[in-house]
Amino acid sequence: MQATNDYLALIGRVLLSLIYVWSGYGALTGIEGATKYIAAQGLPILPPTVQLVLVIIMEFGGGLLILLGLWHRLGVILLIIHTLLTAVVAHHFWTMAGGARVGNAINFYKNLSLVGGLLFLYLQGPGRYSLDRWMAKGSAS
User: Fold this and answer.
1) Which of 22, 64, 94, 107 has the CA that lies 20 to 30 A from 141?
2) C-beta atoms surrounding 120 within 10 Å
């Protein structure tokens, strides 16, 4: 039974990280479009290019940390912050009407669900098949 749990933990970690790695890679390789999208959100706190750098670090970097099971708690924290901010800044369905409201409500609640999965990952740990576990074994010998 433990072997099954170890494989399921790996599969779950990989699946949870995919949306972030894919999206972060898209931002990294489509900097001009991603910068325009961020600027359109109208968040005046930081310039859009600085916001994009933070998004890439959180999405792509955090996603890779989870995918590899390396410093997974740091990756989880980065993605929780990113996902909650994205929900509020980009999917503010309560200010919209019609189809935009429905689509953004779905994405808002999807983000909350992702945060739930990330919280479980934080508690579960990266699992047996992770760089964190491999490095812990190496330092124990």
Assistant:
1) 64
2) 12
pLDDT surpassing 80 at residue 86 = yes
CA distance 85 to 38: 12
Residue with tokens 């039974």: 1
Between CA 128 and CA 13 the distance in angstroms is 11
Query: Residue 60's closest CA among 103, 31, 17?
Result: 17
**Burial of residue 32 (number of CB atoms within 10 Å: 0-12, 13-18, 19+):** exposed
Taking a C-beta distance cutoff of 8 angstroms, is the pair 72, 132 a contact? yes
Whether 121 contacts 76, CB under 8 Å: yes
Tokens of 106: 């779905």
Mean pLDDT across the chain, nearest whole number?
93
Spell out the long-range contacts of 93-99 with Cβ–Cβ below 8 A and sequence spacing 24 or more.
Answer: none
